[in-house]
Amino acid sequence: MAEGAVSIAEVETAFQKFAVHGDTKATGKEMNGKNFVKLCKDCKIIDGKNVTSTDIDIVFSKVKAKTARVITFEQFKQAMTELAPKRFKGKGQEEAVQLVYGLIAGKGPANVGVTKVAKAAAVDRLTDTSKYTGSHKERFDESGKGKGKEGREEIPDASGYVGAYKGQGTYEDKLKQNE
């Protein structure tokens, strides 16, 4: 092993992490094309110049079995051997492969930006419930918290009064006034 070489075990661990990413049924022994591309993106094997996602797809298709839709770790190593000289031009095959493994070792799928909340002025303005008008205003209380069902649905009034009649409960008073 060359000095600064990465242990294959570390690369295999990274392979397994990416293999199970987003797939609840995955065992970590095989990796599908989508996760292979994700690994290559997250580990900076795709650099946009020498290696593109198209190259990754081509290599994936080349190393997998004809009918298979996944690759094993052995096939993965084969794929990296194909990609390495492309990614590190001017380096020897072995050195390039080691450098690629160096990019992968110890990495896991990055969930960067998956749950980032967009904080733009436009979004703030649109979600500021104090500026709502009309019927939408009635869906929120003063603190801006939604009232849930009461604020949203027209809840039928089964008291026997006419729907939009605002003078409910005033009939008795009118009778008294007319006496």
UniProtKB/TrEMBL annotation:
User: What are the start and end residues of every segment in region (Disordered)?
Assistant: 131-165
| Statement: the UniProt record of this protein carries the keyword Heme | no
Query: What GO CC terms are in its UniProt record?
Result: cytoplasm
SUPFAM superfamilies this protein is in? EF-hand (SSF47473)
> Which parts of the chain span the membrane according to its record?
none
Instruction: Give its localization.
Output: Cytoplasm
Annotated keywords: Cytoplasm
Comp. bias regions, Basic and acidic residues? 135-155
Membership in a protein family: Belongs to the TPPP family.
Please give the name of this protein.
Tubulin polymerization-promoting protein family member 3
What is the organism of origin for this protein?
Answer: Coilia grayii (Gray's grenadier anchovy)
